[in-house]
């Protein structure tokens, strides 16, 4: 599987609880933090749900 780098670019303040938990499940805790994960269908789905809060790069 390919790896992707996910960077949180916006805060989760004033976002729904579901979006906050999705960001947390991706391993992000604060703005400008990045994580590298495998591009599984589950991860892709989570990224699509919060795509307005994160930036994605293929590695």
Automatic annotation (TrEMBL):
Name the Gene Ontology molecular function terms of this record.
structural constituent of ribosome
Question: Does Aminoacyl-tRNA synthetase show up as a keyword for this record?
Answer: no
Read off the Pfam families from this record: Ribosomal_L30
Cross-referenced InterPro entries, in alphabetical order? Answer: Ribo_uL30_ferredoxin-like_sf, Ribosomal_uL30_bac-type, Ribosomal_uL30_CS, Ribosomal_uL30_ferredoxin-like
* Residues annotated as signal peptide: none
Q: Is Ribonucleoprotein included in the keywords of this UniProt record?
A: yes
Subunit composition and interactions: Part of the 50S ribosomal subunit.
Q: What is this protein called?
A: Large ribosomal subunit protein uL30
Q: Which organism is it from?
A: Pseudopedobacter saltans (strain ATCC 51119 / DSM 12145 / JCM 21818 / CCUG 39354 / LMG 10337 / NBRC 100064 / NCIMB 13643)
